[in-house]
Write a structure and sequence with these properties.
- With 400 residues, the chain is an alpha/beta fold.
- The chain has a single domain, classed as Spore Coat Polysaccharide Biosynthesis Protein SpsA, Chain A (Alpha-Beta Complex).
- Strands 3-2-1-4-9-6-10 form a seven-stranded mixed beta sheet. The chain has a three-stranded antiparallel beta sheet with strand order 5-11-12. Strands 7-8 form a two-stranded antiparallel ribbon.
- β2, α5 and β3 form a beta-alpha-beta unit.
- It is globular and about 50 Å long.
- One of its GO terms (molecular function) is alpha-1,2-mannosyltransferase activity.
- This is Glycosyltransferase family 15 protein.
Length: 400
Amino acid sequence: MTVLYPKRYLTAVLVAVITLHYLLSITYDNYGRISSFTNISERIRTNEEPTEAPSIPDLNRLQYTNASGESANATFVLLARNSDLAGVINSMQSAEDRFNRFYNYPWVLLNEEPFTEEFKSRVSVLTRAPISFGQIPKEHWYQPEWIDEDRAREGRQKMMAKQIIYGGSVPYRNMCRFNSGFFFRHELLQPYRYYWRVEPDVRFFCDLDYDPFLYMQKHDKVYSFTISLFEWEPTIPSLWRTVKEFITEYPHYVENHNAMDFLSNDGGRTYNLCHFWSNFEIADMDFWRSEAYIAFFEYLELKGGFYYERWGDAPVHSIAAALFARRDQIHFFRDIGYRHDPFQHCPSGEQHTQNRCACDSKDTFGQNTSLPPVPLVKLTSSPLDYTPNSCLAKFEKLFG
């Protein structure tokens, strides 16, 4: 015989269960936790087929591989002081967002003083790639003792009187000398061949969906740039004379298929002041480590021009690349949008659109509304890259 319980009995049982659950929840802390739906759900999942535990990033290059599946032996290099923290963050974030978050090349940051813990912690969160922090050896940074300080001071005072930028700055001269002849000798850079130089407070405008390091490697390039312009002659009055003395004494270092025509309008008799703006450069450190370049730098060093005048690493690098490498080993990265105040290079046409460039293609280096473009070559960049204060047309004329 089937027994049918009245509905009132079922209601009473349900009320009793709910009341008991409530009393236990407020009386025993652990009861609420172990009886929660979340806990019950997790306990059920533990009886399911086990899944592989996620790997923990260890910030090495094996963990974060190049998006192309292939990588070059390369690194970013950034020279900065602790006071440059905000500018370093801006530059690294820009480089990471536009390129390196997909390629994970390491960073080497150098300073003439130890980096602070705050500096290191703030920049370390910007990338998944490895970061190394190094201190520059004193002998690679500070003015050598053999420099005649009276003569050097006199030279600085003359430049200050002419209102030449950094004319009175010794630290600026230290930086130019270091970038010319010592950065590639730093112990943290010894494992690497290629480097991409980044400075504080620069900006990269466009996505870069290929690896420029691999491009350099596969096409046998040793030096590359985005902006080319004229040097300020009062900062280097004796540099070209010194260069001519060097190539007269060491003619075997000069490459037969060189780019002398980029540097000189008269076959090398005078310097036309054209150079590559070296605050952006992607280059092969084996070129700087070569016998030819080391001999060249040491020759310049003994002349004292980094301190008696204001020789910059931009003309030094440019002259060396133009003379000791084949002209086809120098490359213009026209598709890399880049700004270092006060100048910038902005791609145009399809490159601007496809690479989502944030810059105005009409605002690119050489812009001067009072001067028309120079129609020396077929325009493959913005016309404003070819105005008279730019040397890009002269570079491209080497190849056409």
